[in-house]
Design goal:
elongated, 4 helices, mainly alpha, 62% helix
């Protein structure tokens, strides 16, 4: 007994519809037993504090706030550079990330001087 492609698709569609109905009935039974599942699976009390984290939007900064942050970070990095130049902090001790690069640069400059 051989079925055509169209007949196979029709049977598959019927099977899928039957399985869909079974899953719907199972879902209804589960939500009747565990009502919190219908609310997204949150345990305990439902949160009524307003918007959920998925619905929150990050506030954008206005021009004055951006300028204040820019000035603050400029001061921060200036103090970091001053501390590094004075030899303080972890960057002044031991191996730094730019150590090889600086050594290579010195070698190139020495070759140019010859």
């Amino acid at each position: 007994m051989s079925l055509s492609g169209e007949q196979l698709k029709a049977l598959a569609r019927q099977g899928a519809a039957q399985r869909y109905q079974e899953l719907q009935a199972e879902l209804a039974a589960l939500t009747a037993t565990f009502p919190e599942l219908a609310r997204g699976g949150k345990r305990g009390k439902a949160t009524s504090s307003g918007s959920s984290p998925a619905n929150r939007r990050r506030r954008s900064m206005n021009a004055a706030q951006r300028k204040e942050v820019s000035e603050r970070m400029t001061r921060y990095w200036a103090s970091r550079r001053a501390e590094k130049a004075a030899g303080g902090g972890a960057a002044g001790k031991g191996k730094g990330k730019g150590r090889r690069r600086k050594a290579a640069k010195k070698a190139v400059e020495a070759k140019k001087a010859e």
